[in-house]
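Researcher: Let's run the pair from yesterday's discussion. Sequence first, then tokens, for each.
Model: Starting with the first of the pair.
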Amino acid sequence: MTDTHQQPQPGNACVDGFQKTSVLIVDDEERIRHVCTQMLTKEGYDVAQAANADIGLEMVAQRHFDIILLDLLMPGISGLEALEQIREMHPDTVVIVITGYATLDHAVNAMKNGAFDFVSKPFSPQDLRIVVSKAIEHIRTLQDITNEKSRVRTMINHLAGGVMATDNCKVVALANHAFLNFVDHRGETPIGRPVTDLVKDQKILAMIDQALAMPGDQFAELNDEITVASGADGEERIIEVRCVPFRDRLDRNLGTITVMHDVTALKRMDQMKSEFVAMVSHEIRGPLNSVLMQHKVILDELAGEITEKQREILTRAYDKISALVELSTELLDLAKMESGLIAVDKERLQLASILEDQLAFHLPKAQSKSIALELIPLPELPPVLANRRNMEEVLSNLITNAINYTPEGGRVAIGAEIDGLFVCMKVSDTGYGIPKEELDQIFKRFYRVKTEKTRLVIGTGLGLPIVKKIVETHNGHIQVQSEEGQGSTFTVCIPAA
């Protein structure tokens, strides 16, 4: 046997940062052992040999071999008997049986008892290389699966949030330490047991049932909150629970994933913010709205006639106070979003209908400025998993900005397209545009582009930060293309469901 092809393989002895595959040849024919050893050593394998099954089993008991070439007919312990003991000691070892043409039935029996493949005597180097290469590919596949499972298990076990997976029979397939702590589980592992043995809260169990019953053409993230006692003092914790089904390529439900997060601190912050909001509403917005009403009474001349100069001054004051009311409202909304306190219950949405509704809503304002507001013909769009009110707010902000910053006689176009795994909505205008050096500033709070043309446009500088925060909450992204004097295009991309 002569062959010059060499292919270093991973295994036990380390070479160039990788381990060479270890091979044990168990055969009573010295010529077979010698030829196989010579050929496999050239191929880069770590090769050992044994003259019979007794010696081979002793060697297997002392170390692990990736591949064993095992002769079936040997004096003493037969290959089939040795195969059983090898499988008991090292179930992951790949055994290739060596057989003569007269013992093919034995080879078939060996395959039934766990042998990976067989090679018949006499065999060529190419025959041996093929069967060993197949074994290596099998080992690598098993290693990849094991490594991936280990990575996932390590990652999940070190997450701060609780994670549990069940199969479609509601049997626990995975539960990390954080989840076990959330449900106050002590004792033996819950893996392989019914989920009702681990979870007692009826809300969570109902969410799992609902996720498993979800039709294949629907997908929704189920959200709820539960309150659990924690510690010796029984202090209550508020836990946010999310549950989704996971499916195969045919959209058949394979089970559920349930995730839990401790939101107690956020809820406490929410309570404090709610008190602050109430104070702001009473102490600031209330008086401001009262002042607005008084201005309106005067402007409508319900308290007597006013001169044109007085009307001009009062109108300016009215606009400024309106801007302050809007500022307080948007600032409070943004604060809630940044604290994660705005509800983001998501559902499957068709963005086409939202685009059409927003076009109809903003059309009168555009027409009042002689601006053409158009909807670009839409392709067939996949649904997105999003909050309807949030998507409406994103589009409303972008369209309002486009109308405000486009001079009379201009054009605003809205549309959408598919970009890989995202559905992207676009709002384009032929307005004043944004200077290049200011493009990276426009999503900052209170930042407004101020030029000679835009100085009279009233705004708070909070619309785009709110849009960006909403988009990020939906795991999407926003980008802008603009050239001063040539208009702007804002693109919002939301993951397709």
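Model: Moving on to the second of the pair.
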Amino acid sequence: MDIADYLATTLKNLRQQRGWSLSRLAEETGVSKAMLGQIERHESSPTVATLWKIATGLNVPFSVFIVPEQADPRPVYDPQQQAMVITPLFPFDEVLRFDHLSITLAPGAFSESTPHEKGVIEHVVVISGVLEMRIDERWQTITANHGIRFAGDQTHAYRNSTEETVLFHSLIHYAPTP
């Protein structure tokens, strides 16, 4: 099964497990009912930003949509811009409750993340290049071998204003389930 098929099947299964209609899923995620239906039918590939909205609305880790259990992590390319590539380094672990992602941003790339669930903590460490991050409307510059930790339940964005590709890791700790 390729990643797009896996994503479509996973989305549909998660929605059905909750007993939600597409309308309810649209309300919870902020993604249109039409787009969600297209994703489930494998007629459309979501952007990374859309996939984050869906994961947040369903209160599941991002990697749940891209890393089948017992599979090797594969890169996910944003179909709209191909300027952001996300590769899970470790699949989500239910006990430890974290995603560890390797992310590259091409020169000029920008990506905005919707706030995660309350209690989510994100750690970003730049491996190479210079990353600009907006956390709750304040821009910060993070250089190689430096990092930042912040509450992921606020608006945040990533930007590469340089001519060099930026490589960074994002470790996302999810809050315990009630």
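Researcher: Give me one sentence on the second I can quote.
Model: The first strand starts at residue 76 and ends at 77.
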